[in-house]
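Archive entry. Fields below.
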Amino acid sequence: MSDMGGRGGRSHSDRDKDKDKDKDKAGRRGFFRRRRVCKFCVEKIDYINYKDVRLLAPFIPERGKIQPRRISGVCATHQRALQTAIKRARQIALVPYVTD
Amino acid sequence: MSTVRQYELIYITPPESTEEALAELHTQVQAVVDRFGGTIEKTENWGRRKLAYEIAGHRDGVYVLEIINGPAALTAELDRRLRVFDIVMRHMVVRVDEELAAAERARVRRKSDMAERRTRRGLPPEPTDQERRRHAEDDDDGDSSMDQMFRGGDR
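PREDICTED_STRUCTURE:
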């Protein structure tokens, strides 16, 4: 909780400066923490196409479940769109429902 | 005259299905679309693809995508008819016009926002070629490290 507050309170310039540090190093408290970026916002993808398996693949871990956004860092808007896209792709067997 | 909407129809047939069977199926779809006064905008045959899971004992299937413009009643009929064909292992009809329009709106809005920001800073509204090239280079860096992040995952 405390480190969430720390992140939120940081100013823009601070964040830019810490960009590289945040990216792949462990946080102060010892656990893994990276900068949260929404892939779809960064790459300016407006339409998450359910036919594009290569776009969806990074958000479908081994097991076949939809990756929660607390892990992938996708913003709420895009997570909703992503969810729809993955579910459609599952229906037409482009993406698995479950894999054991 | 009911409203014309855009739909995407995808169906999967067994890998051993013949060209004729596929053509026959296409004419059937075409007939339904015609009857409701719609049009088929595009037909794409993806060919044989691996299925993510087994359907009706098959591990592969032939995918066909049809982009259809037509009224809503069309999809119900299409759905009903496709369920009858043995050759169709799986099909799905999705309405896409609203989503595509929303994406287009977002794109236009982003562009106009950028133009506004740029004019406020006293720059020409469109990025020059030179800037674009530089950004492309920057982007590449960002993308590769992003890719790593996503691939890395947490598990």
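CURATOR_NOTE: The CA atoms of residues 37 and 73 of chain A lie 6 Å apart.
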